[in-house]
Design goal:
Elements lengths: L2 E4 L3 H13 L6 E3 L2 H10 L5 E5 L1 E2 L2 E2 L12 E6 L3 H9 L3 E4 L4 H14 L10 H9 L9 E6 L2 E6 L3 E7 L2 E6 L4 E4 L3 H5 L7 E3 L4 E4 L3 E6 L5 E5 L2 E8 L4 H8 L1
């Protein structure tokens, strides 16, 4: 299997390469711009699998497809929001949301191996996705959660929530008055409903509210440890691969 990465941030490209090669696959080429990618793809056999960042230094990567009839399956690597991810799903394209998680990367490659065939990319409507990215609809976010407790319907406003966490295959809301409520959604579903200005997923188990953070400490292995108002169940550790994004979020 031949693999190509198109990513304008060279450290991010090399990190993704290491992650892929750690899984036992070889990355054949790293490219970093629209212009460079067009030139390379015009003069070389197209790879079986392409990891493609959306926003490159010289434009959207969709401009590549204005010049190249790509004969590869694509896994997008993106920091874009839910509306774009839905578009990729509808077009049978997989995606990895930055920062890229090792397990999600392995799952995406397995999906390619099990389901994708070369040339399957030809039916994708890149123009529709590009239009959605360059002229996105206004995003709305969740303002409340409701769920059944016995014979009653409980409503929790978003400004009452200190964090969301997963435990024993369940997803819970933790409120500022130190109560926990089980909800039906997964953390993956919850995170795309929340305003990213107010909430951040620090690891695979926890999403925290900005205003709930009372203290931040330097932890081992370049990680960070958080203290939240009212939440004392477990140590809240920012995963190492999410520390930089977390620092940008709080700044």
């Amino acid at each position: 299997m031949t693999i190509l990465i198109i990513e304008d941030e060279k450290p991010a490209a090399r990190m993704l390469q290491r992650k892929i090669e750690k899984l036992g696959f070889q990355v054949n080429q790293l490219l970093h711009s629209v212009e460079e990618s067009i030139h390379w793809l015009k003069n070389n056999p197209h790879p079986d699998l392409l990891f493609l960042d959306i926003q490159l230094s010289d434009g959207l990567s969709f401009e590549i497809f204005d010049n190249i009839n790509l004969q590869s399956a694509i896994i997008f690597t993106t920091a874009y929001d839910e509306y774009a991810l839905k578009a990729f799903k509808l077009n049978s394209v997989d995606y990895l949301l930055k920062p890229i998680d090792d397990e999600e990367l392995e799952s995406a490659i397995s999906k390619f191996q099990n389901q994708f065939q070369k040339n399957s990319i030809s039916g994708i409507n890149f123009d529709a996705i590009k239009q959605m990215l360059t002229n996105p609809i206004e995003k709305t976010y969740k303002t409340r959660y409701s769920f059944k407790i016995g014979n009653q319907i409980k409503i929790i406003s978003i400004d009452q929530i200190a964090c969301f966490y997963s435990e024993n295959k369940g997803t819970y809301i933790h409120t500022y008055d130190n109560r926990d409520y089980l909800i039906d959604e997964t953390l993956d579903e919850v995170v795309v409903e929340l305003n990213p200005t107010d909430f951040f997923r620090i690891n695979r188990q926890v999403i925290v509210a900005f205003k709930a953070i009372s203290e931040i400490q330097v932890h081992t292995n370049s990680r960070l440890k958080l203290h939240l108002q009212s939440y004392t169940k477990d140590d809240l550790i920012v995963a190492r691969e999410r520390v930089n994004d977390f620092k940008n979020w709080i700044s």
